[in-house]
Write a structure and sequence with these properties.
121 residues; alpha/beta; Rossmann fold; 2 domains; 4-stranded mixed beta sheet; two-stranded parallel sheet; 6 strands; globular; binds S-adenosylmethionine
Length: 121
Amino acid sequence: MAAFDISLEQIGQARQWALRHGLDVDFFVGDVTAIPFPSSTFDAVFVFCMIHHVQDWHRGLQELARVLKPGGAFLIEEILRTWSSWPEFEDGLADAGCDILEKGAILPRLFLTYLCTKHGA
Ligand SMILES: C[S@@+](CC[C@H](N)C(=O)[O-])C[C@H]1O[C@@H](n2cnc3c(N)ncnc32)[C@H](O)[C@@H]1O
């Protein structure tokens, strides 16, 4: 399992948490717009409240989908901010090659979670 954030401080905290809970995770500092893994590496990708911080969020979604295996699971939790509407965000997921399987509201209209998969299985 691998996990990244662009902030060294966030990675430090996450590493401490994983150590305390006995989880074996390869943490690294990285940018979602240039993920240092070959295409189709992971069975599942999880993103929690990060992509709205990224100016080129379309590129971020494309990178996340690139490293996911076709047919893999992509869970993304987001807040309405950078994009003006959820349909705009959903278009970004579709452009990245992801099909939405389910979506759920954490706080209706403000916070949504999408469970997607990547085309081509
Ligand atoms: C609201 S915090 C969420 C942190 C964590 N995922 C969580 O759920 O607790 C947003 C995070 O996005 C990270 N971030 C911002 N731009 C990024 C980028 N281009 N690549 C990777 N992480 C980024 C920030 O460093 C920050 O830790």
